[in-house]
Structures are given as C-alpha cells and as structure tokens.
C-alpha cells in the first residue's frame, strides 16, 4: 500500500481511564484495597443496625403505595414494586441470618468443656 508510511495513533490519549486504572493521576486505586475495615463494629451493633434497616425497608412499600394512590407524580407503580421486592429480599436475608445465628449458638452450646 504506502511503503514506509506508519500512521501515528495516540493510543494513550484514546484510553478511557476509570477508577480501577488510576496510574499517573494521583487517585487512590480501587483494585488492591482491603475489603474489611480495621475498626469493625461489634456483633450487637451490627445486628441492631440490620433490624433498624429492615424496619425502614418494610415500611417503604406502604408509604410509596399511599403516595401513588394519592396521585403523587413522583411515585410510579414500578417504584412500589421495586420497594416490595427489596422488602421481600430483606425478610429472606434476615430470616436466613437469624437461622444461621441460632444454629451457631446451638453448636456452641453442644461443645464439651
């Protein structure tokens, strides 16, 4: 074709940088960080926070449904259905976690000292 012609592509300028690729931009990298934090909360505060979040999640579909029935333009039936799905998922997770905690307690109580 064109002998000796090499087009100049600025490949580095064409690369779309994300948070994962933070080289050269003084951004903290998101690739190799620890998942858990050093100062984690104790078990009782975590469980009480989960219960409070469950209560809020369970009340959300009712509040959204009331707003939708009153004719609020900011609330759609899809929002109500999404909130209901989130509430159902939260109940399933809470039931599973409660069952696992009870199983762990039973196993601890069966230990021979």
Q: What attributes does this structure have?
A:
mainly alpha, single chain, 113 residues, flat, 57% helix, 3 helices
The overall average pLDDT, rounded, is 77
Number of helices: 3
Q: Helicity level, as a percent range?
A: 55-70%
Shape: flat
Q: What kind of sheet is the major sheet?
A: none
Helix/strand order, N-terminal first? HHH
Topology:
Blueprint: H1 11-14, H2 43-69, H3 77-109
Description:
The chain is mainly α. The chain has one domain (11-109). 57% of the residues lie in helices and 0% in strands. It has three helices and no strands. Helix 2 (43-69) packs antiparallel against helix 3. The mean pLDDT is 77.
Task: Give a brief outline of the structure.
By secondary structure, the chain is an all-alpha fold. 57% of the residues lie in helices and 0% in strands.
């Amino acid at each position: 074709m064109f002998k000796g012609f090499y087009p100049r592509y600025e490949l580095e300028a064409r690369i779309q940088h994300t948070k994962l690729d933070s080289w050269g931009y003084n951004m903290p990298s998101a690739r190799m960080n620890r998942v858990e934090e050093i100062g984690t909360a104790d078990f009782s505060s975590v469980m009480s926070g989960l219960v409070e979040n469950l209560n809020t999640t369970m009340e959300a579909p009712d509040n959204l449904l009331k707003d939708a029935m009153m004719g609020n333009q900011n609330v759609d039936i899809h929002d109500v259905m999404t909130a209901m799905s989130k509430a159902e998922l939260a109940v399933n997770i809470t039931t599973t976690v409660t069952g696992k905690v009870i199983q762990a307690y039973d196993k601890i109580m069966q230990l021979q000292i």
